[in-house]
Amino acid sequence: MKNKQISIFIENKEGKLKKAIEVLSKEKINIRALSIADTTKFGILRLIVSDNEKAKNILEKNNFVVKENEVIVVEVPDKPDGLNTILGYLDDKNINVEYIYAFVSKKTNEAIVVMRLEDIDNGIKVLKENNANILTPEDIKEY
Amino acid sequence: MVWNEKFECMDSEEKKKLQLRRLQETVKKTYDNVPFYKKKFDDIGIKPKDIKSLEDIDKIPFTTKTDLQDAYPFGMFAVPEEEIIEIHTTSGTTSKPTVSGYTEKDIEIWAEVSARAVVMALGTKRDRIQNCYGYGLFTGGFGIHYGCHKLGATVVPISAGNTKRQIEVMQDFQSTILTCTPSYALYLAEVLEKEGLNPEEISLKSGILGAEMWTEEMRDELEKRLGIVALNIYGLTEIIGPGVAQECQEKVGLHISDDHFYPEIIDSKTMQPLEDGEKGELVLTTLTREGMPIIRFRTKDITSLTHETCDCGRTLARMSRITGRSDDMLKVRGVIVFPSQIERALLKIDGLTPNYQIVVTRPKNLDELEVKVETSKELFSDEMRKMEAIEDNISTIIQKEIGLRVNVTLVEPKSLPRSEGKAVRVIDERNFE
Ligand SMILES: [Zn+2]
C-alpha cells in the first residue's frame, strides 16, 4: 500500500530545477506526480516516477542529492469537503501530516493526494478503517 | 590641541635619534631577557650592538603571531613576573590566544598614547567619554579608560552591548565622545532614529571608532546621522592595545605614536621594506615597552605610511586607513574570524564535508557573513522543517565557534570550487577603498 517517492535537493540557482527534470526525461523516466517546496535559499523537489532506482542512479550521477521515502497515495472523493474528510480521519487519531500534494488522475475525476506522514503504518491503518481508497504503485501506473 | 607637543610635534631628526636609542635599548632588553629573541638573533649571527642605525632594523627577523602563540602564556615576558601588573589577551580562538603583560610603566605608556588619541578626537578635560569598547581580558576599553584618566576627562565605562542603556546614558550624562566599532555606532544611530531623536538632541561631538575595517562612506554616514566627527583608532594587543594610532580631525591618516611604536611597511611576499606611500603590510616594533617588548611584529594589516607633517602640526608618522589583511583572517563586525574556525565547526556536524565558502558582504554598511556548505545524502531531508532545522543547527554551531551570527546556505554537493593549491574559502565583497 505504500508508494515510494524520491526527493531531490535543488539549489536556488537558475536552471537547477530544469536540469533535474531534464536528466530524468533523457532517461525516459516518467514523472507521475511532482511538488516543490522552497525557501529563498533552496528547494526540495518531490517526485513519484516510473522507475525509482533508475531515477536515483541517474540523478546521483549528476551530483544531485536524492532521498527515497515512503508515502501514501490516496484518492480524494470529488466532493467539496473531500480532502478535509480524509485529513479529519488522520487528525482524529493524532497522526501528523508532514506535507501533502495533489495530482489529477487521467482516468477518473478524483483528485489524488500524496501524503507524507510521521507514522505511515498507522496512517494506512486509519485510512483503511475509514474505507479511503489507498492506491498501490501498480494503481498509479495506470493514471 | 595637542596632548604632548614635545613628542607629537618633535623635529624629525631628533625623533630619529630618539627612536634609534630606544630601538637599541629594546633589542638589548629582549636579547638579554627573552630566550626566544636571543635564539632568533643567535641563529642568524647578529648581536644587539650590530644595530647601529634605524635602517639596521631590517637585519632583525620578524616576529609573527605564531611566535607569540608558541610562547603562550608568558614566554615573551622580558621582566620578572612580580613586575607585571596587568595581563590582556587577544580573542584568538583558533589556537592559544596571545598574551600581553604590562608593567606599571607599560600601562603609563598606554595611558599616554590613549590620551593623545582622545585629544586628537577633540577630547578635553571637560568631556564625557562613553566608552563602549569591552572591558575584559581583551584590551578593548582599557586604553581609552586609562587615557581619559590621564587627560582628566570623565570616562563612562559602560562597555559593550545593552543598546537601550547606552542611549539612556548618552542622553542623561550628555556624553560628548563615543568610542565603539563603526558598525555599532551605525546601529546606535539607527536606534536613535527609531526613537525619534535628532543628532541635535544628543551631545556627541566625536567618535573614536575602530577594531574593524571601515570606509570613507561609512564615515560620512556616521557623521551625518550622529552629528559627530568620526575618527579612526588603531591598535593591537600584541603591541599594547587600541591607541597605537589615531586620526586627528584633519582625517588624513592615523597618527602613530612613533616615539613608542616604530612602524615599517613591507611587501608581505618579498618581505622587503617599502617606501612611504607604498601599500604593504604594517610591521611594528615597540620602543619603550618593558613587560613584553616586541620586535618587528607582522600585523598583517595593509596600509601605507607618510612622514610628512600634518596640518594639525603633529610630526608623528601617519598610516592610511587599513584596506585589507595580508592573510585570510577576516574581521567581521570587529570580530576576528579565521576560515579554519568555520571549518572546525562544520566538522562537528555529521554528514557535512568541510567544503565551504565564506562570503562577506556589507549591505547598508553592516557586515554580513554567509557560509555556503554542501549538502549531502546524510543531511538531506524531504521535509522542509528538518532542512531549516539543519541550517539553523549549522548556524548555531558556527556561531558558538566564532561568536557571530551567520547566514548558512546549503548548496549542491561538489558545487563549491575545489582546492587547486589554495582553496578560495573567502570571498570578501566588502570594499574598503
Ligand atoms: Zn594630524
From TrEMBL, chain A:
InterPro entries named among the record's database cross-references: ACT-like_dom_sf, ACT_dom, ACT_dom_pair
Record CDD domains: ACT_Bt0572_1, ACT_Bt0572_2
Designated name of the protein: ACT domain-containing protein
Pfam families named in the record: ACT_8
Domain ACT: 71-143
Domain of life assignment: Archaea
Coiled coil stretches, renumbered: none
Organism, as annotated: Candidatus Methanobinarius endosymbioticus
Automatic annotation (TrEMBL), chain B:
Highest taxon of the lineage: Archaea
A GO MF label: nucleotide binding
Keyword flag Ligase: yes
Residues of the AMP-dependent ligase C-terminal domain: 334-430
Name listed for the protein in its UniProt record: Uncharacterized protein
Pathway in which the depicted protein is active: Aromatic compound metabolism
Gene Ontology biological-process entries: phenylacetate catabolic process
Pfam families with a match to the protein in the record: AMP-binding (PF00501), AMP-binding_C_2 (PF14535)
Self-association state and partner proteins as the record states: Monomer.
Transmembrane segments: none
Keywords: Ligase, Nucleotide-binding
InterPro entries: Adenylate-forming_Reductase, AMP-bd_C_sf, AMP-dep_Lig_C, AMP-dep_synth/lig_dom, ANL_N_sf, PA_CoA_ligase
The keyword Ligase belongs to this UniProt entry's keyword annotation: yes
Domain AMP-dependent synthetase/ligase stretches: 78-284
